[in-house]
Fold this sequence. Notes:
Layout: E1 7-8, H1 9-17, H2 19-26, H3 35-48, E2 53-55, E3 58-68, E4 73-83, E5 89-95, H4 104-120, E6 126-131, E7 136-141, H5 144-163, H6 181-184, H7 188-191, H8 194-211
Parallel strand pairs: 1-4, 5-6
Antiparallel strand pairs: 2-3, 3-4, 4-5, 6-7
Helix pairs in contact: 1-2, 1-4, 1-5, 4-5
Amino acid sequence: MQDTRLIPLSALQHYAFCPRQCALIHNEQVWSENFLTAQGQQLHQRVDHGLPESRKGIRYERGVEVSAPSLGLTGKLDLVEVDIATGVCFPVEYKRGKPKQDHIDLIQLCAQALCLEEMLGLNVSHGAIWYWQTRHRHQVEISETLREETLSIIEATRNLLNSGKTPKAKYEKKCDACSLYELCNPKLTFRDKSRSYVQAIYQERSFEETEK
């Protein structure tokens, strides 16, 4: 039977950050707040609950529910700006931090653009990300390269969620900022030497038996 489960847009960012985090949240329903996630939640609530408004030929729609059945995606957009004269629109995502070196935020924004394209039958050539920490808005081109990368993440996320499996923990520096750090305990992978210890004892005993 064909899987009809829609992937939340947030799951794509979770997967791009860490597949284990994505599985813990979306397969095992594990969640924990920290200072960073709480700030992010407050920021999104302020943006999402604003009323629609129009200024200088642009309509601002907030908290827009979207879905793209062909991609298996669903979610809510912080803001969609629409040119009233042409109908051309693009998503605006709000983030509490600052621009990242990787494409995690860009992938989420591109997925939002893909949802708008499927729903409206329009081409979305760009989007924007507003960062609270820098108080600056960055325009992002929805390029073919970014589209391909995003589609790859969508497929990988779908496979992970359908598998129902959670990848093993692997500690990296970025783990320190993860709200699931205490529940995930990534450093335990490196602390647990019991298996290698038992193997070493077994090998030593085998060597002694051979010497006899």
